């Protein structure tokens, strides 16, 4: 829904209105029209809207406008649950605030602490952070900076931040930040924790926060086509390969890249389909039997090891893919995102670190390799496609163990998933090729000591929990 009116009608200053126009944003979305005016008036705000509805701009514009009136650092602290989302929010602030010279800093794990400390010492206007890392800096700071003058605190993806995972760090921050700050919570999912905050009496000297609930009771957008494929778990890989080579007709035209020439024998990843299927008549393959690359697709898994395995598998099958999960370094994670955003690589294989808030243009398809443990995570995952009024496809692989999860997801989204059928004979034609690729992918994981890295990560997590 795009309300009538303009940003200028809501009191947005010309410099910011012009910045929005340069981004081809000329009319406010529902969440922006609802939340920008009360935030400009100085009220706290709790905003609920579907993914892809423009929540970042709904809090960034009021922050930048208030900052332009009285510029100082550190003016705003924006908290996010994931590192990738922090970088994305920082980029949006930088673009919108270029005309007023806004300075931002991203403070997340996986990056150099000393470099971040120097950035914080320079007193940037907007700090975008994950809770754990900003608390680490607070505890190690020698007084070069503090949060005593923060005017705005934003919790983006508030449902995730208000879970038990982040409660120790949030407690520290709430005790540190000034009581007269403006607090903004934005979320696509209204949880009991957020409902409790809505009903709670206001802090001393404050009025109750402005609350905007999405006008739609359906959590997924109407332009998203949602399917499931009922498949035995041991042949999921063959079905995934066929789906990527032969995407639904509604998105097939969104293919952006062509395969690079492949030199056989260079590595395990260059495995060509063999046999009679290597003809130009085979759907999804070119005349050399190499897959035609799929349209931009994100494949979601629950575990980092699965994401690494599927990435190796698809690379072996000559489908360009890259991984995004917590066992990669931050540099590797940002590189994967950059390659996917630029369409150089059409398939991103991700755990749920990529499910929240990421705004990647023109993602055509989301595939749930594993169904998520919680039904609300399904809505966040599939929200990576069909954004800003565009169409998209979501396909979930459903195995013999997933019946209850499907029922919970359908209850959450208020509709039933549509069955997608595949031509079994064509899928099984590639079974030998895919089986060979599975063996090679597992060998790649073994050679890279991924299992050992998993053990080290679990040990570190256990020690941190016990500390």
CATH superfamily of the largest domain: P-loop containing nucleotide triphosphate hydrolases
How many strands, which pairing sense, and closed or not: the largest β-sheet?
Answer: 7 strands, parallel
Strand order across the largest sheet? 3-4-2-5-6-1-7
The assembly state of the depicted protein chains is single chain
Please name the CATH topology of the largest domain. Answer: Rossmann fold
Percent range for helical residues?
Answer: 40-55%
Number of domains: 2
Radius of gyration over all CA atoms, rounded: 23 Å
Give start-end ranges of low-pLDDT stretches: 261-280
Separation of the first and last Cα atoms: 48 Å
How much of the sequence lies in strands comes to 5-15%
- Helices, by number, come to 18
CATH C-level name of the largest domain: Alpha Beta
Structural class: alpha/beta
């Amino acid at each position: 829904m795009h309300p009538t009116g303009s940003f200028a009608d809501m009191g947005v200053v010309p410099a910011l209105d012009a910045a929005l126009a340069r981004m081809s944003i000329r009319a406010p979305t529902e969440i922006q029209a609802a939340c920008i005016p009360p935030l400009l008036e100085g009220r706290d705000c709790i905003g609920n809207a579907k993914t892809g509805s423009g929540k970042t701009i709904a809090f960034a514009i009021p922050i930048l406008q208030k900052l332009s009136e009285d510029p100082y650092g550190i003016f705003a602290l924006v908290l996010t649950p994931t590192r990738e989302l922090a970088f994305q929010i920082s980029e949006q602030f930088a673009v919108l605030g270029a005309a007023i010279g806004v300075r931002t800093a991203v403070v997340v794990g996986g990056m150099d602490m000393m470099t971040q400390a120097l950035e914080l010492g320079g007193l940037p206007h907007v700090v975008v952070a994950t809770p754990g890392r900003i608390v680490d800096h607070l505890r190690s700071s020698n007084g070069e900076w503090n949060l005593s003058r923060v005017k705005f605190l934003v919790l983006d993806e508030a449902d995730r931040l208000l879970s038990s995972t982040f409660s120790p760090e949030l407690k520290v921050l709430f005790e540190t930040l000034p009581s007269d700050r403006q607090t903004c919570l934005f979320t696509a999912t209204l949880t009991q924790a957020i409902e409790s905050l809505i009903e709670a009496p206001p802090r001393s000297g404050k009025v109750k926060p402005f609350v905007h609930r999405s006008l739609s009771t359906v959590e997924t957008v109407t332009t998203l086509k949602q399917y499931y494929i009922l498949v035995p778990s041991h042949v999921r890989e063959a079905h995934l390969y066929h789906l990527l080579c032969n995407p639904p007709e509604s998105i097939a035209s969104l293919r952006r890249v062509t395969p690079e020439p492949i030199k056989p024998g260079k590595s395990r990843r260059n495995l060509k389909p063999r046999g009679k299927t290597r003809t130009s008549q085979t759907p999804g393959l070119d005349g050399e039997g190499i897959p035609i690359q799929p349209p931009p697709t994100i494949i979601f898994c629950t575990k980092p090891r699965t994401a690494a395995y599927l990435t190796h598998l698809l690379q072996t099958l000559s489908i360009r893919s890259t991984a995004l999960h917590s066992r990669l370094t931050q540099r590797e994670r940002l590189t994967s995102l950059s390659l996917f955003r630029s369409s150089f690589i059409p398939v991103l294989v991700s755990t749920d670190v990529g499910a929240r808030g990421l705004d990647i243009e023109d993602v055509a398809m989301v595939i749930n390799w594993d169904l998520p443990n919680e039904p609300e995570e399904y809505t966040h995952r599939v929200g990576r496609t069909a954004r800003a009024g565009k169409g998209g496809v979501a396909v979930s692989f459903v195995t013999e163990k997933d019946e209850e999860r499907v029922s919970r997801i359908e209850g959450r989204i208020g509709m039933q998933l549509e069955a997608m059928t595949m031509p079994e004979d064509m899928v099984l034609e590639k079974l030998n090729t895919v089986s060979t690729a599975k063996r090679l992918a597992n060998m790649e994981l073994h050679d890279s000591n991924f299992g050992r890295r998993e053990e080290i990560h679990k040990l570190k997590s256990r020690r941190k929990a016990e500390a």
